[in-house]
Design brief:
The complex is a heterodimer of chains A (270) and B (295).
Chain A lengths: L4 E12 L3 E12 L3 E6 L5 H8 L7 E6 L2 E2 L2 H5 L1 H10 E4 L3 H4 L5 H11 L4 H14 L15 H13 L5 E5 L7 H16 L3 E6 L2 H7 L2 E5 L5 E6 H6 L1 H6 L4 E5 L7 E5 L6
Parallel strand pairs in A: 3-8, 3-9, 6-7, 7-8
Antiparallel strand pairs in A: 1-2, 1-4, 4-5, 9-10, 11-12
Helix pairs in contact in A: 5-6, 5-7
Chain B lengths: L8 H34 L10 H17 L3 H17 L4 H9 L2 H9 L12 E3 L2 E2 L2 E2 L2 E2 H27 L2 H7 L7 H32 L5 H32 L17 H25 L1
Antiparallel strand pairs in B: 1-4, 2-3
Helix pairs in contact in B: 1-8, 2-6, 2-7, 2-10, 3-6, 4-6, 5-6, 7-8, 8-9
The chains are: A alpha/beta (270), B mainly alpha (295).
């Protein structure tokens, strides 16, 4: 933990079985307290990169280091490192169905702390406290399959926040959510950021990017970093967004104008 | 879509054939709805719902063992009355419970024990003499007594099992298995299977509806088999991917292969267990005394 950089990603390449390239020559550093957005069209490699930062997959070429140590299979054979890493890095998956694998929300929130050695009574109390903090205490005894998508997302975030991780990795946290739930998720992320957590969010909901990130990385169709910089600047670069399928055109009208077509992004008043 | 009543006979027959798949899928979703309904009862506030699942399982186990050894029908009926009292105290509609326990269980048990009421299997005092081809098939008093005893025992035992499953959330019941020496990893895996069976059931239902929306419900049998086989393969593939992703999600939260689970509420509530065991012993003692008195 002496290293200032939390993550150091160098020349990472990754190919899925069937020679489907997912990442190609990705390099960047993440410092403590950074708020980063990974933006890119579907299939640009955002989820793959997050899984790699969480030590769930390993690069074919290049390296990923966390807290000064290379993330390799050998590193995760070291129980002490695994415990420190897993309690320091929390990953909210895109699909909450896979993250909520226990019979009740309470069990799900307590699962991480129990795995990391907390006793049942403490883990139970922590689950209650975390649920209360996120305003989902009424969901504790509910079964995950009976929740709405928004409730599932909140429960999945609670399950990760219960570990009180230093780093939060979030994969499309607001995809498919209604505006109110999206706002609630953004508020939860702002709260986590206020606590000094490092937050890396993969999203293509551009209207939340400036609220949840200071720096934005654009992943291009060629699976490389197409651009990076302050989130406001990246979102203001219309050409960059067009080239990377992040802005789109459709027929619409403003006020009493005739319907017309021009490229734009939703939620941004440019 | 027109109802089957407006269709020509040939099309109706096709619809009937297709209904086999529809019925299977609807039966499966009905099972899911039933499970959800049971969970709703188990989540209510009530006397038995407050019990720790493990303690409750052991308590009911002692009562069922007691029922198996009782020979006095009045005592068995008293035990059933206790079951009904517990049902009422647990905020469960008594009529609903009676329908569940008294409609089919005694009837099917009667079918099973039917041969035993004849002199062929239970010789004794003939109540209704009958002889076919030289075989004595008279119905005997001893046969009837034995059949009634077995039917009462089965009804009481199954009623307690139903009451246990209605008042206990299914995953809590699974956790209670640990108390019976079932390995924790099996219990954890079974809990996850239980959670995901609902997701897969939804997937099956939606896939079926998607197929139906494109075919209008009329599919040739051979085509229907192809669609079903294809869906089975897709479901297997999806469940395999789900399995991999869930494992990644578990690893991400620090899972190292050691099964973990929260303790159930009310763990260590041995007073209630002692009360149930005492009641069971008292029933057995009363049965013993009544038999002695009768002898």
């Amino acid at each position: 933990m002496k290293n200032e950089n939390i993550f150091e990603v160098k020349g990472v390449e990754y190919t899925y079985p069937g020679k489907v390239a997912a990442l190609s020559g990705i390099s960047f550093d993440v410092k403590k307290g950074d708020r980063i957005a990974l933006i890119g069209a579907n299939g640009s490699g955002k989820s793959t990169l997050l899984a790699m930062l969480d030590g769930l997959i390993y690069p074919d070429k290049g390296s990923v280091a966390a807290f000064g140590r290379q993330l390799t299979e050998a590193a995760f054979n070291d129980g002490d490192f695994t415990k420190i890493f897993r309690s320091s890095v929390g990953f909210v998956f895109q699909n909450p169905e896979i993250q909520l694998f226990c019979p009740t929300v309470r069990e799900d929130i307590a699962f991480g702390p129990l795995c990391l050695g907390m006793n049942s009574e403490e883990a139970g109390k922590l689950a209650e406290a975390t649920a209360e903090k996120l305003g989902i205490k009424d969901l504790l005894e509910r079964q995950p399959h009976r929740l709405s998508i928004g409730e599932k997302k909140k429960a999945a975030i609670a399950a990760v926040l219960a570990l009180d991780p230093e780093v939060l990795l979030l994969d499309e946290p607001t995809a498919g959510l209604d505006p109110l739930t999206t706002r609630h998720i953004v508020e939860i992320l702002s709260m986590a950021s206020g606590e000094g957590k490092t937050i890396i969010t993969a999203t293509h909901d551009l209207h939340i990017v400036e609220e949840i990130a200071d720096i934005a990385y654009v992943l291009g169709k060629d699976k490389k970093i197409a651009a990076y910089g302050p989130a406001g600047e990246i979102l203001g670069n219309r050409r960059l967004l067009d080239e990377n399928n992040l802005a789109h055109v459709h027929i619409h009208s403003h006020g009493h104008e005739k319907p017309h077509i021009h490229p734009h992004i939703h939620g941004k008043n440019k | 879509m027109p109802s089957a009543g407006y269709l020509p006979r040939e099309r109706k027959n096709k619809l009937k054939k297709n209904n086999f798949i529809e019925k299977t899928i609807l039966s499966f979703t009905a099972f899911v709805r039933e499970a959800v309904f049971s969970e709703e009862i188990a989540a209510r506030r009530g006397f038995l719902q407050e019990f720790n699942a493990g303690i409750k399982a052991f308590s009911f186990f002692s009562v069922i063992i007691c029922a198996l050894f009782l020979r006095n029908e009045q005592l068995l009926i008293a035990l059933y009355a206790l079951c009904l009292a517990l049902t009422a105290a647990s905020n469960i509609n008594t009529v609903f419970f009676l329908k569940r326990t008294l409609l089919f269980i005694p009837f099917f048990t009667f079918l099973v024990v039917l041969p035993s009421i004849s002199a062929l299997f239970t010789p004794g005092d003939a109540l209704w003499p009958a002889q076919i081809c030289g075989i004595n098939l008279s119905i005997t008093r001893q046969g009837i007594d034995g059949a009634v005893l077995i039917m009462t025992r089965v009804t009481v035992s199954v009623s307690f099992v139903i009451l246990l499953s209605l008042t206990t959330r299914h995953f809590e019941l699974l956790k209670a298995l640990k108390g019976f020496g079932i390995p924790a990893i099996f219990v954890m895996t079974a809990g996850m299977c239980y959670r995901y069976i609902f997701l897969l059931a939804e997937l099956i239902e939606r896939t079926f509806l998607a197929v139906k929306s494109r075919t209008g419900g009329l599919i040739k049998a051979a085509h229907g088999r192809k669609i079903t086989a294809w869906n089975m393969a897709m479901l297997w593939r999806r469940s395999y991917t789900l399995n991999e992703n869930v494992y990644a999600a578990m690893l991400s939260r620090g899972f190292s292969g050691e099964p973990v689970a929260l303790n159930s509420k009310g763990a260590g509530d041995y007073i209630r267990l002692a009360v149930f065991i005492t009641v069971s012993v008292l029933f057995l003692a009363a049965d013993f005394l009544l038999r002695g008195h009768g002898a």
